[in-house]
Amino acid sequence: MNVVLESPNHPAVGLKLAAMLGRGLLKEHYARVLKYGKLLPSSSSEVWVVHSTCQDDVTKDPYWPSDEELYKDLWVAHVWHNHKFLEVAIVGCWWENNQRYITGPYAI
Fold it and tell me: Could you give the 3-state DSSP secondary structure of residue 35?
């Protein structure tokens, strides 16, 4: 886990920051961050993998975790940027109300 955000009246949020990963390494990060998430101070904590890349297909065909991983409060954001960081887009995925939610891509 790279960053843990804590607030007195809110569950902890763990962030794993990743860059330019292929599907195999993303899969490893998803599993690893869930393991680290168990060490956070609150049982209702969220854990995020935030993946930054200039790979063109990340917003069109992102690699998402399984429903089982999402159900365990894994949240994922893929952030695409061009080589000069002049264009940026984001897609996200999480589990809520017994289903998978996917949002984006949104230009930012």
Answer: helix
Q: Which amino acid is at 89?
A: A
Q: Is omega for the bond preceding 41 within 30 degrees of 0, making it cis?
A: no
Find out whether 89 and 103 touch, Cβ atoms under 8 Å.
no
Q: Tell whether the model's pLDDT for residue 75 goes beyond 90.
A: yes
How confident is the model at residue 108, as a pLDDT?
85
d(CA 26, CA 51): 8
What pLDDT was estimated at residue 98? 92
Residue 78: beta bridge partners? 51, 91
User: Does the global pTM surpass 0.85?
Assistant: yes
Copy the structure tokens of residue 88: 């940026």
Q: Using CA atoms, how far apart are residues 40 and 25, in angstroms rounded to an integer? A: 23
74, exposed or middle or buried, with CB in 10 Å at 0-12, 13-18, 19+? buried
Reading the block at residue 13, the tokens are 């949020």
